[in-house]
Amino acid sequence: MDERQVGALRFQLDLSQPIYEQIVEQMSRAILRGDIGLGEKIPSVRELAQGLRVTPNTVMHAYQEMERQGLTETRRGQGTFITSSRQRVEAFRQQEAHRVVTEFLAKMRSLGFTEAEIIEQLRSRRQEEEMQ
Amino acid sequence: MDERQVGALRFQLDLSQPIYEQIVEQMSRAILRGDIGLGEKIPSVRELAQGLRVTPNTVMHAYQEMERQGLTETRRGQGTFITSSRQRVEAFRQQEAHRVVTEFLAKMRSLGFTEAEIIEQLRSRRQEEEMQ
DNA sequence: TGAGTGTATGATAACACATAATACACTCGC
DNA sequence: GCGAGTGTATTATGTGTTATCATACACTCA
User: Fold this and answer.
1) Angstrom distances, CA of residue B60 to CA of B20, B24, B48, B75
2) Which of these CATH numbers, 3.10.270.10, 1.10.3720.10, 1.10.10.10, 3.40.50.720, describes B2-84?
3) Residue B72 predicted with pLDDT over 70
4) CA-based nearest residue to A112, from B45, B94, B54
5) What is the pLDDT of residues B77-117, one digit of tens each?
6) Where are the domains of chain B?
7) Taking a C-beta distance cutoff of 8 angstroms, is the pair B27, B64 a contact?
8) Which residue minimizes Cα–C1' distance to D21?
9) Label partner for B40 (CA 20 to 30 A): which of A45, A96, B53, B63?
10) Does B97 sit within 8 Å of A113, measured CB to CB?
């Protein structure tokens, strides 16, 4: 759980997953939570790389992935910015939800659970967690 | 979608994922569905390797993983067998379900969905699919 | 004993990921 | 225009995972 702060952003990196994917995921979350406002500039490739003690190439990889998903816009010579389109962010959120739900349903079905049982699993899980 | 039949088992292998993981997953599913009975012998390492046109090492990797999960028992010189304990199979199913649900909830929460919204997503998805 | 099992090892290759170093192109304020 | 700060590209190197190929060993059973 190596935790590092860069500007207003906090990152937790580990070795369980590619670093560039962790950057994308945690940055996306920050955008969805509103920790970074629409149209705001995010740290430069070199700045974030230094802050995370990681190669600029790795940050670049993450930034290109975010742009591909429509979350950011890069302006050569100026920097990388969160998209100023609220619709794009919402589209991303819906698209991700769709993907996650599809994956989840496929896995649960292959384990032999019916729709009703799947929802029941979720309900009982919620109760378990409320116990604590 | 390279589909291959080995004895009573059907496998679909692709390059999107490690082969040994695909073998574990599809064999597990076959056990859960009851396509292979408890205590039954499964193809030998070499036999399955030949059937799937894959290296024996790869099949070995898959078989060792299944044994680690308590799904199979291997008897040196005799072969690999599905566990004859119904409880072990059920334990595996529950454990997998727990893991899948946990992962799913974490992802959906990180996308900013509440419990109610998550269940709503599942319901609306079911309706979408019934349309077809 | 021999055929069929699981198991182990070493060499090789391909690929993804990350690092390091360097260079180029663009933008903006001075 | 210059220089600092941007994104971007390239090359080389290293590491780990996955898979292949070949070979060998250990065990079981008819």
Assistant:
1) 8, 11, 10, 13
2) 1.10.10.10
3) yes
4) B94
5) 999 999 999 999 999 999 999 999 999 999 999 999 999 99
6) 2-84, 87-131
7) no
8) B55
9) B53
10) yes
